[in-house]
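Let's study a protein:

===
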Amino acid sequence: MRIEERIKTVQGLAKLLKTKDKKDLPSELRPLWEKWEEAVEREHFHHSWFVPEFVRSAAEAIADMLLGEDGQALARWIASYRPVLEAKTETHRVGVIMAGNIPLVASHDLLCVFMAGDVFVGKMSSHDTRLWPLLVEMLAVVSPEAASRVELTQDRLGAVDAVIATGSNNSTRYFEHYFGNKPHVFRGHCNGVAVLDGKESAAELQGLAADICLYFGMGCRNVSKVYVPEGYDFTPLFQSMEAYRPLLGAHHSYLNNLEYQKTVHLINSIPFLDQGLCMFKAEASIASPIGVVHYEHYTEVEKVWEPLRSEAVQCVATHLPAPLETVPLGRTQHPALSQYANGIDTLRFLTEV
């Protein structure tokens, strides 16, 4: 497939994912759309963390990333890679070990492998084995040729020429053991952070609440830590997070994690702020347990930025000017195509295999 055909194929899939009413689709596509909607509604019966609202959020974020505001995001993104992609003559089988912390989390890897003209061989997470086959089925409707370049498995990868693997920091040791002799990208866990100054608007705080609460805080782009000035008043942020009470407050597994953390902290006399849906704890580390957000006070915001260049930081959300790349509050789960996981240019890697 030529690059223009690949772009058109991906755009077609994105538009299908964005469809909210089957009446907007041709009659032949409506049964598949209904099948997808049913799967979205029922996925939490198989994996309790994948509630319908969050599966839809993930699908919409993928579609928005692929299209952009004007529908031309893909063309702009691929422009700098076009010469090497057009000169590429070999097709590789790229094994992708897919994480399962949030729905469809390996979608950007699939995009990169497809746009590189390679074959995607995906080892699905046991947490996400139903949505992925349906997504490939939707891709097949847009382009049977494109779908033929996607292989999904719950078993071993088999013969592959390169590997992209995402998991916990402990998992990377196993990735190195099994696949270290092949061209590879190994990613460990990282988190999002937010830097506040107390002058955030109500809309920005609502956005930050989404950055914290979407996917129960389990994504690598979720904000797990906030930097705030001395004397910061958390009340407006706590009020903004109430919008997520119907979801977080009704989820037994989430509440069990939260209750466990509260119990441990109370027994050990560790102070924390209790928002009701979430604990806020003064802590230097960036990664935090489910139901917990760390915070750290600063006196000079200029001294905050340099430590945030760490590999443990996936993204920085703020409205403040900063000497590093940031995203607006509320947009951590809506990355641009060029905002690669762990800062590793996946498509560039594939062109150099």
User: Anything to note?
Assistant: The radius of gyration is 21 Å. DSSP finds 14 helices and eleven strands in the chain. The longest helix spans residues 30-46. The first strand starts at residue 93 and ends at 97.
